[in-house]
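ok trying this again, last paste got cut off
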Amino acid sequence: MPVLKIDENKSVSDFQKDFTTLFPFLKIEFFKTPNSLLDRKHYKTGTLLAPNFPLSKNAFSIDLSPSTTVAQLKTIIFEKTGVSCLVYRKSGSMWIVTLLTEDWSLARQNHEAELMSNHSIG
């Protein structure tokens, strides 16, 4: 079972690298905007946290089962750090926010993104 570890003062960019190592066709962004405002209408206006921003002052781990959904990950991160996040799925050369598919597992999101990224039109 994959584990995301957050050490004391681990930066946003360090967490993003760890996340992308586990899910190469997904990316995660962190926002100052509260989760309740990062909805379908407002996510584009959220203020991103700086790459060197520390996610937490306390160390903890997130155990990711094959069925862990995007919504579950967002909730865990918010409860542990007070920081809001969004997960994006690669689609060709674009990144698509997963707001409409947050009930999908991270594994499914990554698989779907891999299919879309490897699918050539022509």
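PB: full thing came through this time. The longest strand covers residues 84-91.
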